[in-house]
Amino acid sequence: MKKLLAVSSLVVFLCGCSDPISLPEDLKSNLGKEEFVEPETSEYTTYVKSIREYMYYRTQAVLNHDVNLLWDRYPDLKNNIDQKTGINIEKDEIDSMDDVIDANYSIESYEPIKVKRINEQEVIILVHGSISYVKKDFDEAGGEYLIEVNLQKKSDQWTVVKTDEYLEHEYKEWLEEREK
């Protein structure tokens, strides 16, 4: 009986010591596929925290009208900015929102996050949420957004290295694909 208890305790202990950032098997099997899937429960919190942190720094940059608040935390977002494709275009939002005093965001207001697995060190998170800004005159701005957030594992933590916001025509194409 003591052996059974000792073995059971060892198994429970070893399961509890597993790497919390490693990807689950079903995401590993998604390697190379061109589709987004819902993350495993064990990985959901890790991804959501990374996206929440990104949105926090993004809204702080808008509220303080200082893109460096975002870029200091995510220096890769300074690179390869392309307004025509929606790549790393946070600066455009910051520049256009110079009269806001408050912000609220919901990363899953339209649907839960989805994950596309690139390799062991990189995933893309599809975020379909909303953001609302309150202007100085108490009018509102903002709305729905659809964005692919590339996360890369650096020092055993997921960090944002690229964003791709769906532009209006891309969003319409995405909607048409979903209806098929």
TrEMBL record:
Protein name: Lipoprotein
